[in-house]
Amino acid sequence: MSNLSYNPFEIAQQQFDSVAEKLDLEPAVREFLRQPMREYHFSIPVKMDDGSVKVFRGFRVQHNDARGPAKGGIRFHPMETIDTIRALSMWMTWKCSVVDIPLGGGKGGVICDPRNLTEREQERLCRGYVRQLVRNVGPYTDVPAPDVMTNSKHMLWMLDEYEAIVGGRHPGFITGKPVGMGGSLGRTEATGFGVIYVLREALRNLNIDIRNTSASFQGFGNVAQHAVKLYQQYGGRVVAISCWDEADKTSYTFRKKDGMNIDVLINITDAYGTIDKNKAKELGYEVLPGDAWIGQDVDILIPAALENQITIANVHKISRQVKVIVEAANGPTTPDADKIINDRGIFLVPDFLANAGGVTCSYFEQVQCNMNYFWEKDEVLARLDSKMTSAFRSVYELAQNRNLNMRDAAYVIAINRVAQAVKSRGWV
Ligand code: NAD
Nearest CA to 154 among 118, 191, 123? Predict the structure, then answer.
């Protein structure tokens, strides 16, 4: 999407191949797991408000459903590509597996720019998406959720369309619904909070007091905003945040060395995670080039925007002070940059472990929908913390015992579980 010189699907396959080799997986299991089981490509005609019809391309990929129904978000993005979705669906399989929830991996997307669509047009697009897919998704088949530039409102339109077609009420069809309409409390915070739960555990194991740390973030959307909030609650200091500015077609980094006030910053940020640069300047923020977030003298870097952001071209800018990188976004680090980070001894928590809080809470949402009994927010967050912490600990333990880095250890656990499931089912 953002950096077309890297193909995320090829990266996902390379990562898989290298772990498959370490695990000595049988050739048929490798062949089966290195590509999606199913994918759907379709056109969605949408009646626009001016009476014209626009046709959008949509995709849904189900990488693997051996451990449970496919699960994964739907992205709306003008530069969406099928290979991005293939990669993300594969990472969803590993993500659900590493946190040990009974779901598989899927992902969807539409090539569109919701910033240029009215509410009514977005609603028709959501309904059109479901109409194209209704036979191939469902609570026991494939369960969508929000992702980049989609939200709870889109999910409810999609659920409503699904229920209108199949009849009855099926709240388990989709997650990320609004609270009060089948959504779970805590879902909005879940991914960002999950990132900070694993950061807390990483720092604990590295004997670093979180209260003495500083961090720089890329992105200020749903994930980053909640991550910043909890990190500050734990006593960390956020020095820089970078985000995209659609009006200027570039990104900026906002810096305040003595730390940022998250509530003030959210007040000057739009629904797409863009900080208003003029207001930020008035509030005393330095406005720097977009990639400045990566070169800050901080202890922690948290990429929370898009894939392919830490590359061979900018990895050398990472300050010597950086001790931990937590990948909040999916696929933010390219393999060549990953190798350099590893060689430098920076402790990296890989994406599919770090950002698994969202899907874990989506799983809780399905459980609550099935019971028709909804938990208090504290209960949701406590269960989330416990699931993320225990996943982190298993990966950390394996990494220590087998002398692996965290990414490889997480892959070993995740791929082993899925390989076991496809073999136990007798598929390969
Ligand atoms: P979002 O759309 O709410 O926010 C994205 C943020 O990234 C915005 O602030 C945007 O301005 C910024 N951004 C975009 N391009 C940029 C660039 N080139 N430079 C700097 N900033 C840029 O998205 P989100 O839901 O916060 O998701 C962020 C990442 O986390 C994505 O990789 C997504 O796949 C992943 N993720 C999200 C969830 C979830 O629950 N929302 C769960 C797991 C993973």
Answer: 123
